[in-house]
Amino acid sequence: MFLFRTFVTKVYAFKIAMSELTPRPIVLSGPSGTGKSTLIKKLMNEFKEYFGFTISHTTRKARPGEKHGQDYYFTNREAMEEAVSRNEFIETAEYSGNLYGTSKKAVEDVLSKQKICILDIDMQGVKNVKQTNLKPRYIFIKPPSMEALEERLRGRETETDESIQKRLCSAKAELEYALTGAYDVMIINDDLEIAYEELKGFLSQDISNLQKQKFKKH
Ligand SMILES: Nc1ncnc2c1ncn2[C@@H]1O[C@H](COP(=O)(O)OP(=O)(O)OP(=O)(O)O)[C@@H](O)[C@H]1O
Asked: Coiled-coil ranges per the record (predicted)?
C-alpha cells in the first residue's frame, strides 16, 4: 500500500532587486531519484563560472558522502524554525518528519555573482516559487518509467523500503502536476548524456549571453 506524503508548506514574500543583467534563475524539479543532482553536477562541472546552485537547508541527517555547505546546510529543527520566524526563507516544506527550505540568502548569494541560479526543489517548492518575483524558467526532469525510478532509488542505497514507496507515491503526483503545463520544458532522463545535451540545449542562449558579458568585461 502506498503511503501518502503529507506536506506542510509555507511560502514567504520574497522581493529581490533583479537588474536586467541578472540572469534568470532556473528551477529543476522532478521526482526523487530522477537524476536532478546528477545533471546539476554535470552542469556545474562544465560551466562552474556561469551557474550557482542554491544550497537548501534540511533537518534530515546527512547521507554518507554529503557535505555541510555543499550538498545541504544541515541544521536542527529549532534553529531552522527560528530562522523561518525571522523571515529568512523563501519556502519551506516538511517531508517525512524533516524540514527542508531555500533561504533568501542562498538565492541572493548566487544572484549577486551574476550567475544563473539553480534551484533544485520539489513540486511544492515550485508552487511556492511561482508566488515570488523570482521569475525562473521551470525544467521538469522525468524518469523514463516508474520501474526505472524505483531501480535508481534502490541503486542509490540511501532509502528504506518505506521511503522508496513514499517517494514513488509522490512521483505520481509530481508527474501529474508536470502534465498541467507547469514547466517550460520536460526532459526525459533515460540516457544521461542525451538528457544532459537537452538540458544544455535549453540553456544555450543563457549560457552564451553570460559568455558575451564576461568577454566584454575582459
Ligand atoms: N540517466 C540515468 N541512468 C541511470 N541512472 C541514473 C541516471 N541519472 C541518474 N542516475 C542515478 O540515479 C540515482 C538518483 O539520481 P540523483 O540522486 O541525481 O536523483 P535526484 O533527482 O537528485 O534525487 P533527490 O531528489 O532524492 O535528491 C543516482 O544513483 C544516479 O547515479
From this structure: none
- What are the grid coordinates assigned to 30, written together? 522532478
**Burial category of 110 from C-beta neighbours within 10 Å (exposed 0-12, middle 13-18, buried 19 and up):** buried
**Protein residue with least CA distance to atom 2, ligand 1:** 192
Whose Cα sits closest to atom 29 in ligand 1? 156
Determine the pLDDT at residue 36.
96
Query: Which grid coordinates are listed for 169?
Result: 507515491
CB–CB of 169/29 below 8 Å? no
Q: What is the pTM of this model?
A: 0.84
Judge whether 137 counts as a catalytic residue: no
What lines the ligand 1 site, CB under 6 Å? 30, 32-38, 152, 155-156, 189, 192
Q: Which three cell numbers stand for residue 70?
A: 555543499
Catalytic residue among 24, 77, 154, 156: 156
Which residue, by CA, sits nearest to atom 1 of ligand 1? 192
Question: In the numeric block, which cell numbers belong to residue 120?
Answer: 533544485
Spell out the residues 6+ positions from residue 197 whose beta carbon is closer than 8 angstroms to its own. Answer: none
Task: Locate the ligand 1 atom nearest the alpha carbon of residue 155 and give its number.
Answer: 29
Other Cβ atoms within 10 Å of 52 Cβ, number: 22
For residue range 132-178, what is the model confidence (pLDDT) as tens digits? 888 899 999 999 999 999 999 999 888 899 989 999 999 999 999 99
